[in-house]
Structures are given as C-alpha cells and as structure tokens.
Amino acid sequence: MLKYVIRHCFLPLLFLLPLASCLNLIKPRRDFAAYTPAAGPDYAQDSCWAALPTRRDSADAVPRNSGLRDEQATAAADVFFIHPTTYVQPQSWNADLARQGLNRFTDRSTIRHQASAFNAAGRIYAPRYRQATLYSFFDEQTPNGQAAVDLAYADVKAAFQYYLAHYNRGRPIILAGHSQGTAHATHLLHEFFDRDPARRRQLVAAYLIGFQVKPAEFQVIRLCADSLQTGCFITYNAAATGNDYPPVHPYAVTNPLTWTLDTLLAPATLNRGGVSMDFKRIDPQVTDAKIHQGLLWITPPKPGGYPRFLLPGRPELRHSFHIADYSLFYMNIRENAQARVRAWQLLSNN
Fold it and tell me: Rounded to an integer, what distance in angstroms lies between the CA atom of residue 328 and that of residue 254?
C-alpha cells in the first residue's frame, strides 16, 4: 500500500522540497464538485470484485513454502473485506474502476497481503470501489475530502447490499478492512449490524485494523475482550515502542498476540509469524506487542519487509508501522479468525 507514493514522491523529494509541497503533489487540482465521478460499479459483474470465492484471485494466495492452504471451498463463514487506499494520484478525488493498472496493484498488494489472512476462515468477498484518493484524509480545510469518502462508502454499501442479497444466505460474517477500508467497515457496522439484532447474530467479529476507532464507537457492539468472543470488534494501529501520538490516545486497541485489552507486554514468543511484503516467507516471533494509550507498541522487526509509514507533513508518523499492520501479525490473525468462527458455530448450535 502507498508504494507509488513512497517510491515516486516521498523519498526522492523529502530532501528537495518542503514537506507540504510533496503532499501537495497528490492533491487534486480542482474541487470535488468540478469533477464528474467515474462510472460506478455494477456488483452483478464479477469484474467489480477484487475477490470472489468462486474464482482464482489474489485472496487465494498463501506465503511461499508456508504449508498453508486456501480453504475457502470448505469454509463455514464469509469474509467481507474492504481494501485500504491504493489510489494516490491527483487526477480526481476518487479512483476510476476502469483503471486496470490500479486494480492489479490493489490485488497484488492489499488483497494478497491482507485479505488472504482470512482464506482459512471464510469465503472472501472484496469489492472494488471508487476509493477516495489518499489526500482526502488530509483535507481538513474543505468539504472535498469528506465528499470523496462519502462517494467511496456509497459503493461499499452497494457492494455489501448485493453481497447480502445474492451471496450470504444466512452464513456467519467476518467484516474486515484496513485504513480507508476500516473507515468504511466501521460505517457498515453502524448501519447494518449495530441497529439490527438479527444481523448482529451473524457477526463473527469485525477486524477494524489501521484506523482510529473509539472504545464506545457503537451502541451495542463492543471491543472483543478475549480470543474467542464473537459479535465484537478488534482494532489497533502499530507503532514503534516509545513513541506517543497524542491525537490517538482516546482510541481503542486490541493486542493481536493475546486478543485482550490489558496493557501487559505480550512477548514475541506469542507471535505465530509475520509475513514480509514480498510474501515469500513467514517470520516467527517477528515482534512483541503492548497496548499504550491508543497505540499498539511494537519492537521494530529485525527482518526486512515490514516498512514504516513515511509521510511528509506528518513527522510524528515516522514511527508508525501502518503499512505492516496486518503483515506483522499475519499468522495470529489467520488462526484467530478460524478460532472465532468455531466459537460462533458452537454458540449458534446451543
């Protein structure tokens, strides 16, 4: 995620331009209302999905030589996964689904590295959507960024409604996302689950990773307090130990090594394995984890392939491992999703 920005904008220009200037390179040139949005998706068409369990796609992947298998064909649950921001260009406020290069990049990065963590627990449905461009999340002075996010959510909502009507058939649901995807997943939880007891009973868990979620975000749905609780949500933002970002302090955190909410250090021995960005290996015990004032503190991993989040104009984020939120705890997420599905099945059968 954000590979294009990091490689082509941020790193080469950090030492040549003021920080704000580099961020301005990805700012759309006109207001949201001045653009005609690209054509919206038709979710009856397979091409409007980045992942479907009925075809081969990047969500089926497993790390090389890992011994893992894609188990979607026999999985008891469904996974509705919403990918994070992969569109960073300034041509418009929202991505065009007809851009095949962007679609391929999304599939090879976030669908493979994140959605695949759930392919042992459920059948994966991941919609393409007119995602808001990265700059939308830094636009605090105009309504443009929020308008772009609202358009993106309208697509995600339409995809979820299509999924419920045509694919779900009453099966248990894991809702998962990262970054922008988590913002939309949080919105779905408010609109479709928190207010609907019947739909809530279908919820295995929501993995709301890489975005700020309040502890009391929902009226009914609560933070998962242990590894087997169902109908709850999990959330965290990884950062190097010793760093504080005051704006994050009020937000919820789950420790993905223990799946609890306490502030005890979970040692690296509990880390079942991270998966590096090249997706070629599993690194057991790659890092520890500790909840600290709205962040998940980690010891920076020694193996390569777990990048920090380098964003000009936001120097406090130089210690963030946002891009590696899933990668650092890949095996723990994979095994926990399976365990929660089994727990959901036991509860539903009693």
Answer: 14
The rounded distance, in Å, linking the Cα atoms of 150 and 199 is 23
Summarised one tens digit per residue, pLDDT across range 128-182 is 999 999 999 989 899 999 999 999 999 999 999 999 999 999 999 999 999 999 9
Burial bucket for residue 268 (CB in 10 Å: 0-12, 13-18, 19+): middle
Average pLDDT over residues 101-121: 97
Q: Which of 322, 323, 257 is nearest to 287 (CA)?
A: 257
Tell me whether strands 274-275 and 282-283 are parallel, antiparallel or unpaired.
Answer: antiparallel
The amino acid occupying position 128 is: R
Secondary structure in 3-state letters for 43-111: CCCHHHEEECCCCCCHHHCCCCCCCCCCCHHHCCEEEEEECCCCCCCCCCCECCCCCHHHHHHHHHHHH
Tokens at 333, concatenated = 């997420």
Long-range contacts of 67-72 (CB under 8 A, 24+ apart): 68/120, 68/334, 69/120, 70/116, 70/119, 70/120, 71/119, 71/120, 71/121, 72/119, 72/122, 72/123, 72/124
For residue 110 the two structure tokens come to 């976030």
What is the reported pLDDT for 1? Answer: 36
Alpha carbon 144 to its chain's center:
23
pTM greater than 0.70 (yes/no): yes
Return the structure tokens found at 239: 């950062």
pLDDT tens profile 308-342 = 876 655 555 668 999 999 999 999 999 999 999 99
Please provide residue 245's backbone torsions phi and psi, each rounded to the nearest 5 degrees: -120, 95
In whole angstroms, what is the distance from residue 301 CA to residue 283 CA? Answer: 10
Contact (CB, 8 A) for 290 and 241:
yes
| Average confidence (pLDDT) over 117-122 | 98
CA distance linking residue 289 with residue 286, whole number of Å: 10
Contact yes or no for 102/133 (Cβ under 8 A): no
